[in-house]
Structure formats: structure tokens, C-alpha cells
Amino acid sequence: MASGVNFIDTADYYGEDVTNRLIAEALCPYADDLVICTKVGGARRPDKSWIPFNTPENLRTSIENNLRTLRQEQIQLVHFRVMPGADVPFAESMGAMYEMQREGKILHVGISNVNPEELTAALQMGDVASVENMYGYAQRTTLNDGHGETRGGEVLPLCEQHGIPFVPFFSLVHGLPNGGNKLAELARQRGVMEAQLNIAWLLHKSPLLLPIPGTSSLVHLRENLAAADIQLSAEDMAYLG
């Protein structure tokens, strides 16, 4: 927090509440300017595979669990994550989210893992505070991340049209080619890591992009934070494409 970080992305299915509990132990009572974003709509089997958890009853259970483990009376931002194989209509799940918003359990409702049609449908039902999809330098078009097709590159223009913040996940994970690519070459020239340049590219790509790179150590945290200081010119962005 002292370094200027004021947005934390979590979920109760990260390590069976472990992440939420660690956040609460470290930061509760929370600073007024800190936004904690959690996700609902999916669950994990013992073998770590994903299943939909998106009935109105399941969503309410997830919200109550997040409130308890985060030690909050209201969650500032909740993303409903669309999972493949769900047999509950999208509109029914979103209706449950907006109902809990009216009850005061959720301040802002967002969506995740969505395609343009789902974002458009959600906007017809209520406000969409943010969208969280897979997106990064190496993945800007339709991709399958194991949860379903996220179509980040197709959703971002729609978010820009409506002024909706876009939270890219897995932005550093999927397949930067080793050697001979523009990102690696520019990173070498600038004396920075490829992952740092990837984050910088996101920050320069659109003012609505809010990167959430995973951080597993203090060293990793400092590396990620340093990416915000990397300045890319219009020529740099044109070179990277």
C-alpha cells in the first residue's frame, strides 16, 4: 500500500479462502482508498479442475463467504465469472448479482470471461463497473484459457466505447516466444525484463487497462511496480504493434 497499490484482485476459490484470509489479516481495517475485487461464478474440484458455481443460490453463498473471509460488510467490486458448461442462463446469474447489489452486499458489479454479446446483455440489465478478461501483449484475440473463450481483444474496444475499465488477467502467462521477438528486443535495449515491458505495454495500450500481474514475493512485487515507470513512446508502441 505504501508503494501506491490500491487495487487487489482475489477470489474465495484461491487456495480455499487462503488469499482472502491473508488479505484480511494483513490489511483489515482497510484503507479508504483500497479497492478489493473478488470473483464469483466458479468453483474448484479437489483435483483443481473448474466447475460452474453460478446459480443464484451458489452466488449468494459465494458472496457471503467472501464477506466473512475478507471481514467486510460490503464488497466494493465483484466480478461474475462466466464458466464453460454452465446451464444457468447468463441473465439469471446477473440478475442475482444485481439483486445482491440492491441489498447492499455488493457496491459495484463487474463481469469476467465474457464475450461482446454477454457484455452488451449485461449493460442492458444494469451498470457494469469493470470487465476482467484474459488479455496481454501475446494474446489479444480469441483464446481459450481453460475456462472458455475470453475474446479480450474483441471486448476491449467495447469497453472503451462505454468507458468501462478492463482488468486483464493472465497477461504475462501465455506464450511469449523466446528470442527474436520485438518485445524481447526492446526489453534488451531498455535494460528491463520482458514481463516488465509487457506490463508497460498494457499501461500504454489504453487508459482503461488495469493490469493485475501475479506477485509471489517482495522481489517480484518490486519488479512489477517498476514497470509503471517505463515510458513508451508512440514509436515504441508502433514497433511493438
From TrEMBL:
GO terms for cellular component: cytoplasm. Keywords: Oxidoreductase. InterPro entries: Aldo-Keto_reductase, NAD(P)_OxRdtase_dom_sf, NADP_OxRdtase_dom. Pfam families: Aldo_ket_red. Residues 3-240 form the NADP-dependent oxidoreductase domain. It comes from the Bacteria. Transmembrane segments: none annotated. Gene3D superfamilies: NADP-dependent oxidoreductase domain. The keyword Oxidoreductase applies. The keyword Metal-binding does not apply. One of its GO terms (molecular function) is oxidoreductase activity. This is Aldo/keto reductase. It comes from Hymenobacter cellulosilyticus.
